[in-house]
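note to self — DONT lose this again. spent like an hour looking for the file last time. sequence + predicted structure for the chain T wanted, 280 res
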Amino acid sequence: MGQYELPSGTGVCFINLDRVPERASFMEAQFAHTRLVGAQRFSAVDGQEPGALDGNGYTPGTGSRWGLKQSEIACFESHRAVWQAAVDQGLKAVAVFEDDVEMSAQAGAVITALLDGGDGFDLIKLDYSPRSMRFGPLQDIAEVPVRPMLEMAPSAAAYIVTQAACRKLLSWSERYSDHLDDFISIPRPNWRMYQCFPAVGVQMIWSKQQYQTAESVKVSERSQDQKTNSGLDKGPLWFRVRRELKATGRKLYWRAGAQRRLLADGGFVGFIPCADDLSV
């Protein structure tokens, strides 16, 4: 079987901490499995390095959360650095992966098709999300089945963004207080975001294959390493009340007939299906 070459003017990268080479090896094996040629390692911002987070854009209360953990800021800044690199290099689109994504054998074909798929989207999420979600009617982009994303997703471990999308994300994130996962999937005007249907990747923490994988791959320091996961501030009472009111408003909207109309129009409510060779 042949290999998949990156379309001209596009890129694929995986974000990896210098001090966790086991994860880099894991991702290199995953890309080999997909037969995708040209994926590059991108050195992650390390929240444990002195000065690494100086000058970051985290500003409490400017987003959906007040406080972020040090590792969450480092994760956000790592993705932000990828968006900036894509703009600086003039890439028309880039596929971005974190370093713990199990990939379907179909992923190489899907990624190359979407990277060459034109400007009909801003973001296409490639990975599974561990929560029931709502999506619009099924459609194709570059002959790949996708559904419009209608709400924030709890995972952003694998996605494709255009250069125009990178510029938008950079502008919107000059100040932020969101998890990266939430931030890129916030429904916004002029933000065309889709979910690959079925997903062609899944983070190892959600995969049934995790028990056959090294501990350093399946466990994220964002949830385990106390050096970068302390001091979380949920914010003042007014901020927490406002956040709860917004969440309640969204729930009432869907319960008041919007979900019924969505399903009648061909939408989908549930867990994202995965490619046949992935297991969750």
